[in-house]
C-alpha cells in the first residue's frame, strides 16, 4: 500500500515540478504574470506532495512496515521512536528524500515570500529551484527508490548502524543538509540575475540573509559533526580531512569568501563576476560533496553508497557547471566591472586578500581530496593524501586569515590614511607583541603557537579597542551610560557587530584547534584491577571491569578512579558496546570535559575473565574552546541576521 | 569573440572527466607493500581446536584467505570457489588457509559448515594476524609461494578465473 502510494506521489511530484519549470519559463518569456502565478502554485503543490511522501515514509518507519526495503534496512521493531524517525536519513534513499523535501520547502518559502516582489527574477528563480528538485525526484524515481518493496516481508529489520543511534543523529545531518540546500537560494537568484541581465546589487540584497543563514547552518553542521565525532568515536579527534569532511568544508570556504566579498560589491560596485563565480562555485561544491558521498569513487569512512547514483550526480554536477559558467560567459561583456582598487591599503583589498586566502585553502583541500584520483589517472599509482598535507598547507593560510580578520573590519574603505591605521592598529599591535613576548618569556617556544597567539591577541585587541572607542564616543556625545551605549551600538549595527562576534568565535576556535593539536598527549596501558597509570598530572586506577546487559546491546565498562596531583576527582567509566547484529564492538567514551583540558578515556581492549583492561587516555588541552567558539559564532550570526530597526530605515533594502 | 566565450564553460570539462574516471577505479584496491616480501609468520588455532603455524607450510604454496561470516555478499560468493580450488589443487601440493576476522566462533563455524570447508580455518582473536598482513577489509587473499614470500594480494571476492590464474602462477614459482 505505502509502497504503491509513495511511488505514485513521487512520480506526481516530478510531473508537478516539470510543470512548474515550464510555467515559470513561459511566464518569464511572455511576461505574463498569470503563468508565473501558476508556477508558484505548482511549487506549493510540489511541496505538499513531497511532504506527503516524507510522511508516508516516516509512517512506514514508525509502524515498522517491513514491506518496504528501506524500513528493513534502517530500523528494527525495538528501535526507539526517535531513531525510527531518524531512520529517514539513515541511508541513501531516505536522505535524498529528506534533501528534496528541504529543497521543496525552500522553494515554497521563496514562492510565498516573493509573491509580489521581484517579478522579473522570480520566475527564473523558481525554475532553477524546481530544476534542482526535478533532479532529486528523477534520481528517486529511476535509480534509488525510497519506496521499494521488500519480498518476502521479514519479521524484523536490520536497524541503523549503532553508531547512528544517538541523539546527535537527530541534529547533525539536518543542520548540514539545511546548510547545503540553503545555498541553492542565493545560487538561483544569482543565475536569475545573469539570465535576466539584472546585474545590479538587487540579487545580493535579496539573498544576503538566505546566504548568512545557510552559512550558519552549514557551520553548525560542521561544528556539530566534529563535536559528535570527538565525544563518541573514541579516537580523540574531531576532524580527519576525510573526503566527505572536506566536501562540507569546501562550500563553507567559498561561502565564507562570498559573505565577505558581497560587502565590496554593495559598497563599491566591484567584483560582480567574482561574486557570481563564488556563489556558483559554492553550490557546485555542495553537489560535488553529495556526489563524493554517494559515488564511492574515493575511500571514505562516511561514504554510504555506490552504483548509478554516482553517475547521475556527476551528470548533474556537469550540467550545473556548464549552466553557470555558460551564463557567465554569455553575460561576460556586461560584467567586467567599472570599479577599481583605489589603494592596496584599504578594506576592499583586505577583503580581497581574505578571499584569495579562502579560495587558496579551498583549492588546496580540493586538490588533496581528488589527488588520489589524479595520481591514478596520470601516473597509475595508488596513493592517499593524509592529514599532514592538509595541516601543512592550512596552518600558514589559516594564520594569514586570522591576521586579516583583525585588519579587515577596521581598516578604512577606499584608501586608509596613516591616521586611520595608527588609530585602529597601533594599540592592538602593541598589545599582541607584548602578550607574545610575555608568552615567550614564560617559556612558550613553539613558533607556530606563538604566531597563532600573536594573531589571536591582535584580533581580539582590535575588536575590543573598536568597541571601547565607539562606546566611549557615544557616552561622551550622547551622555548615555557605558552599558546603554554599548547596547545601542550592538543593536544599531547588528550586521557589523554580529560579524565581529563571529570573528571572536573563530579566534576561540582556532586557539582551541592550535593548543589541543600541539599540546595533546596520549598514553595507553594494560592494567590489572587495582593498578594505576599516569598521564600528565592525572592518575587513573582501574577499580573494576563489569559487563551488563542493556536493552539493545551488552556493555562492558571499566571503572577508573581519577585523581590529579593526589586529589580524587571521581570516576570515569569508558566501555565497549557489543551489538547482536554487529561483529565489532563500539567504543563508549568517557571524559572529563573542562575549559582548561579534557581528560578523555577509552577502553581499547579487555580480558574476558576480567583480569585486565587496556586503557587509552588522552589529555586534550583547550579542546572545548572549539565548541565554545562555535557557540559564539552562532550568537554572532543571530545578532547579524535579526532584522534591524533603525529609525532612518537605511537598511530596509537589505532585508531580502 | 564568441568562440572565446565558449572556453569558459569548457573549463569544467577536465574536472568532470577526472571525476568520471573515478568510476573505473576502486579506492579499496591498494597495492600491498608486503608483496615480494616474506609473509609474517603466525599461529592459527583452527576451528577443530588444533593449531597450525604458517612456517610449517614452507615448501608449499599457500592461499591465505581472510574472511568473515558477517561479510555478505562478497565472502559468500567466493567461499565455494575457495573450497573448489582446494579440492582441485591439493594433490599438487597447494595449501589453503582461512582466517576469520572479527568473528565469533559460533558464526564462523556455521559459515564453514555451510560451505563444507575442508581446508583448515581458524579465528584471529585480537585481529593479530590481519594487522600483520595489513588487511583493510574482507575478503582479502594473499598468495604465498613455496619460499614463504607473498607473491600477490587480491582485494575483494575472487572469481573462479582469477583464483585459478593466481594459483597457476603460484605453482609455477620456485
Structural category of chain B is alpha/beta
Number of beta strands of chain A: 10
Secondary-structure-based class of chain A equals alpha+beta
Name given to the CATH homologous superfamily of chain B: Glutaredoxin
Mean pLDDT of chain B: 87
What is the fold-level CATH name, i.e. the topology of chain B? Glutaredoxin
Shape of chain B: elongated
Oligomer: heterodimer
Order of helices and strands of chain A: HHHHHHHHHHHHHHHHHHHEEEEEEEEEEH
Unreliable stretches of chain B: none
What low-confidence regions of chain A span 5 or more consecutive residues with pLDDT below 50?
647-656
Broad shape of chain A:
globular
What's the CATH architecture name of chain B? 3-Layer(aba) Sandwich
Overall pLDDT score of chain A:
87
Strand content of chain A is: 5-15%
Main sheet: strands, sense, barrel of chain B: 5 strands, mixed
**How many DSSP E strands of chain B?**
7
Q: What number of domains of chain B?
A: 1
Task: Please provide a written account of the structure.
- The complex is a heterodimer of chains A (about 650) and B (about 170).
- Chain A has helices spanning about 1-30, 35-60, 70-75, 80-85, 90-115, 120-140, 170-180, 185-195, 200-230, 245-270, 270-295, 310-330, 330-335, 345-380, 385-405, 420-440, 445-480, 480-490, 495-520, 625-640, and strands at about 520-525, 530-535, 540-550, 555-565, 565-570, 575-580, 585-590, 590, 595-605, 615-620.
- Chain A is globular.
- Helix content of chain A is about 65%, strand content about 10%.
- Chain A is an alpha+beta fold and about 650 residues long.
- In chain A, strands 2, 3, 4, 5, 6 and 7 form a six-stranded antiparallel sheet that branches. In chain A, strands 1-10-9-8 form a four-stranded antiparallel sheet, covered by helices on one side.
- In chain A, a hairpin with a 2-residue loop joins strand 4 (about 555-565) and strand 5 (about 565-570).
- Chain B has a single domain (about 35-170), classed as Glutaredoxin (3-Layer(aba) Sandwich).
- A five-stranded mixed sheet of chain B has the order 5-4-3-6-7, covered by helices on one side.
- In chain B, helix 3 (about 75-90) links the parallel strand 3 (about 60-65) and strand 4 (about 95-100).
- In chain B, helix 3 crosses helix 6 (about 160-170).
- The longest helix of chain B has 16 residues, at about 75-90.
- The interface between A and B is medium-sized, with 31 and 27 residues.
Amino acid at each position: 500500500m505505502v509502497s504503491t502510494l509513495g511511488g505514485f506521489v513521487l512520480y506526481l511530484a516530478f510531473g508537478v515540478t516539470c510543470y512548474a519549470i515550464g510555467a515559470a519559463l513561459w511566464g518569464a518569456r511572455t511576461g505574463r504574470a498569470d503563468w508565473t502565478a501558476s508556477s508558484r502554485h505548482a511549487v506549493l503543490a510540489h511541496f505538499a506532495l513531497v511532504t506527503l511522501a516524507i510522511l508516508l515514509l516516516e509512517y512506514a518507519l514508525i509502524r515498522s512496515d517491513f514491506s518496504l526495503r528501506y524500513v528493513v534496512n534502517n530500523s528494527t521493531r525495538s528501535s526507539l521512536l526517535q531513531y525510527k524517525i531518524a531512520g529517514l536519513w539513515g541511508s541513501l534513499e531516505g536522505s535524498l528524500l529528506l534533501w528534496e523535501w528541504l529543497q521543496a520547502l525552500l522553494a515554497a518559502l521563496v514562492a510565498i515570500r516573493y509573491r509580489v516582489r521581484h517579478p522579473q527574477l522570480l520566475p527564473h528563480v523558481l525554475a532553477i529551484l524546481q530544476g534542482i528538485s526535478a533532479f532529486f525526484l528523477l534520481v528517486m524515481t529511476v535509480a534509488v527508490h525510497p519506496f521499494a518493496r521488500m519480498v518476502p516481508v521479514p519479521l524484523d529489520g536490520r536497524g541503523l548502524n549503532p553508531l547512528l543511534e544517538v541523539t546527535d543523529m537527530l541534529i547533525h545531518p539536518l543542520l548540514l543538509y539545511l546548510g547545503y540546500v540553503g545555498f541553492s537560494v542565493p545560487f538561483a537568484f544569482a543565475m536569475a540575475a545573469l539570465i535576466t541581465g539584472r546585474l545590479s546589487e538587487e540579487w545580493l540584497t535579496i539573498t544576503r540573509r538566505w546566504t548568512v543563514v545557510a552559512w550558519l547552518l552549514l557551520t553548525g553542521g560542521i561544528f556539530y559533526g566534529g563535536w559528535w565525532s570527538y565525544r563518541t568515536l573514541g579516537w580523540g579527534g574531531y576532524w580527519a580531512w576525510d573526503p566527505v569532511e572536506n566536501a562540507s568544508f569546501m562550500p563553507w570556504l567559498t561561502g565564507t569568501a562570498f559573505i565577505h566579498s558581497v560587502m565590496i560589491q554593495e559598497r563599491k560596485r566591484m567584483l560582480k563576476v567574482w561574486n557570481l563565480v563564488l556563489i556558483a562555485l559554492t553550490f557546485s561544491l555542495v553537489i560535488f560533496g553529495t556526489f563524493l558521498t554517494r559515488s564511492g569513487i574515493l575511500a571514505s569512512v562516511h561514504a554510504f553508497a555506490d552504483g548509478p547514483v554516482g553517475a547521475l550526480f556527476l551528470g548533474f554536477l556537469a550540467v550545473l557547471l556548464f549552466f553557470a559558467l555558460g551564463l557567465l560567459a554569455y553575460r561576460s561583456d556586461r560584467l567586467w566591472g567599472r570599479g577599481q582598487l583605489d589603494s592596496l591599503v584599504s578594506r576592499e583589498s583586505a577583503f580581497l586578500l581574505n578571499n584569495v586566502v579562502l579560495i587558496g585553502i579551498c583549492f588546496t583541500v580540493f586538490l588533496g581530496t581528488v589527488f588520489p584520483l589524479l595520481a591514478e589517472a596520470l601516473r597509475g599509482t595508488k596513493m592517499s593524501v593524509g592529514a599532514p598535507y592538509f595541516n601543512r598547507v592550512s596552518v600558514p593560510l589559516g594564520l594569514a586569515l586570522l591576521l586579516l580578520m583583525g585588519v579587515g573590519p577596521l581598516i578604512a574603505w577606499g584608501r586608509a590614511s596613516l591616521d586611520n591605521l595608527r588609530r585602529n592598529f597601533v594599540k592592538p599591535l602593541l598589545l599582541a607583541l607584548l602578550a607574545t613576548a610575555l608568552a615567550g618569556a614564560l617559556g612558550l617556544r613553539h613558533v607556530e603557537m606563538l604566531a597563532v597567539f600573536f594573531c589571536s591577541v591582535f584580533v581580539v585587541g582590535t575588536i575590543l579597542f573598536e568597541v571601547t572607542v565607539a562606546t566611549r564616543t557615544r557616552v561622551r556625545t550622547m551622555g548615555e551610560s557605558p552599558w546603554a551605549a554599548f547596547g545601542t551600538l550592538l543593536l544599531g549595527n547588528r550586521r557589523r557587530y554580529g560579524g565581529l562576534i563571529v570573528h571572536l568565535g573563530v579566534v576561540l576556535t582556532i586557539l582551541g584547534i592550535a593548543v589541543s593539536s600541539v599540546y595533546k598527549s596520549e598514553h595507553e596501558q594494560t592494567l590489572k584491577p587495582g593498578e594505576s597509570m599516569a598521564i600528565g598530572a592525572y592518575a587513573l586506577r582501574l577499580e573494576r571491569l563489569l559487563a551488563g546487559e542493556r536493552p539493545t546491546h551488552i556493555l562492558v565498562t571499566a571503572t577508573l578512579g581519577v585523581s590529579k596531583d593526589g586529589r580524587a576527582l571521581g570516576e570515569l567509566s569508558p566501555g565497549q558496546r557489543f551489538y547482536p547484529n554487529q561483529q565489532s564492538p563500539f567504543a563508549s567514551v568517557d571524559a572529563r570535559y573542562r575549559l582548561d583540558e579534557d581528560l578523555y578515556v577509552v577502553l581499547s581492549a579487555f580480558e574476558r575473565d576480567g583480569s585486565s583492561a587496556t586503557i587509552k587516555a588522552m589529555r586534550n588541552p583547550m579542546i572545548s574552546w572549539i565548541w565554545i567558539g562555535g557557540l559564539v559564532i552562532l550568537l554572532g550570526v543571530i545578532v547579524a541576521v535579526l532584522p534591524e530597526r533603525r529609525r532612518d530605515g537605511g537598511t530596509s533594502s537589505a532585508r531580502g | 569573440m564568441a568562440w572565446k566565450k565558449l572556453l569558459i564553460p569548457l573549463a569544467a570539462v577536465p574536472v568532470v572527466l577526472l571525476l568520471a574516471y573515478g568510476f573505473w577505479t576502486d579506492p579499496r584496491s591498494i597495492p600491498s607493500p608486503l608483496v615480494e616480501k616474506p609473509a609474517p609468520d603466525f599461529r592459527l588455532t583452527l576451528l577443530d581446536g588444533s593449531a597450525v603455524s604458517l612456517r610449517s607450510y614452507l615448501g608449499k604454496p599457500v592461499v591465505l584467505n581472510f574472511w568473515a561470516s558477517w561479510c555478505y555478499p562478497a565472502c559468500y560468493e567466493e567461499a565455494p570457489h575457495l573450497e573448489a580450488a582446494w579440492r582441485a589443487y591439493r594433490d599438487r601440493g597447494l595449501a589453503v588457509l582461512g582466517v576469520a576476522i572479527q568473528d565469533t566462533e559460533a558464526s564462523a563455524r556455521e559459515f564453514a559448515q555451510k560451505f563444507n570447508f575442508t581446508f583448515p580455518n581458524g579465528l584471529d582473536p585480537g585481529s593479530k594476524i590481519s594487522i600483520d598482513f595489513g588487511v583493510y577489509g574482507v575478503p582479502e587473499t594473499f598468495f604465498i609461494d613455496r619460499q614463504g614470500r607473498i607473491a600477490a594480494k587480491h582485494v575483494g571476492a575472487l572469481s573462479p578465473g582469477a583464483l585459478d590464474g593466481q594459483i597457476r602462477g603460484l605453482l609455477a614459482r620456485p
